[in-house]
From TrEMBL:
InterPro entries membership: Pra-immunoreactive, RDD
Keyword terms, alphabetized: Cell membrane, Membrane, Transmembrane, Transmembrane helix
Localization, UniProt: Cell membrane
Spans annotated as Disordered: 1-24
Protein known as: RDD domain-containing protein
Keyword Repressor: no
Keyword Cytoplasm in annotation: no
Predominant place of localization: membrane
Organism for this UniProt entry: Candidatus Enterococcus testudinis
Domain of life where this protein originates: Bacteria
Domain RDD: 76-203
GO cellular component: plasma membrane
Mode of membrane association: Multi-pass membrane protein
A Pfam family the protein falls into: RDD
Length: 226
């Protein structure tokens, strides 16, 4: 009996690690970060109302204010976006191989190396269409972004408009991807405040981590119920 009491008095080693031991602790940390940055309670509530759309894109929030001033750590960093991009490239490669690649193989045609050959132009069209269509119709998420739980957002719009998507995913991605000298346009993602690359600056967009928005909205909902 005494041994049992002694065991109960000692903390569980698994609970002594740093960091939140319960999801509610994580929600509290997220909300606390807003309070430390001098956000008012009214601003927090407004953000919670507006950001429900980014957590659940199909959910229509009536007259939601456009307050997209996310804290710095809400934005997805360079590496997670790179990993998502690699997955997207794999998906695009598979689509290209199944479509135009199959036609060339069955026809016995040579792909060639000319940058403006038919195969290269169709491959480019598939590449750009993939990012444009998924970003627009899947609420800012490609396959890679879905896997890593990140999403493209606009600082000016609740919904990504065609203009914004075309600037970012068509014009911007074409320049950044197909002219190697402009690869440096991705580097600002590493050190810029809102983790924006060159195309993001022109489109006024960035990429956020959905779980952090969920954490904020979850705690705000619980706080309002109490």
């Amino acid at each position: 009996m005494d041994k049992d009491k002694q065991i109960d008095q000692h903390p569980n080693p698994k609970q002594t690690h740093a960091g939140p031991s319960h999801p509610d602790d994580f929600y509290q940390q997220v909300l606390s970060s807003f309070e430390k940055e001098a956000y008012t309670e009214e601003t927090i509530k407004d953000n919670q109302q507006a950001w429900q759309h980014f957590e659940e894109p199909d959910r229509q929030v009536a007259q939601a204010p456009l307050i997209n001033d996310f804290p710095d750590y809400f934005f997805a960093g360079f590496w997670i976006r790179l990993f998502a991009f690699v997955i997207d490239l794999s998906v695009i490669h598979s689509i290209t191989a199944i479509t135009i690649g199959s036609v060339y193989r069955l026809s016995g045609l040579s792909i060639g190396t000319h940058p403006f050959g038919l195969y290269q132009l169709v491959s480019l069209a598939i590449y750009l269409a993939y990012f444009v269509l998924l970003t627009k119709y899947n609420h800012g998420q490609t396959v890679g972004k879905m896997i890593f739980g990140i999403r493209v957002i606009s600082f000016r719009e609740a919904q990504l408009s065609w203009q914004t998507v075309l600037i970012r995913e068509l014009c911007g991605r074409y320049v950044l991807q197909f002219y190697w000298l402009f690869y440096v346009g991705y580097l600002p993602t590493i050190f810029s405040k809102n983790k924006q690359h060159a195309a993001d600056y022109f489109a006024d967009t960035s990429v956020v981590t959905i779980n952090l928005i969920k954490a904020f909205n979850k705690h705000a909902d619980v706080h309002q119920e109490v």
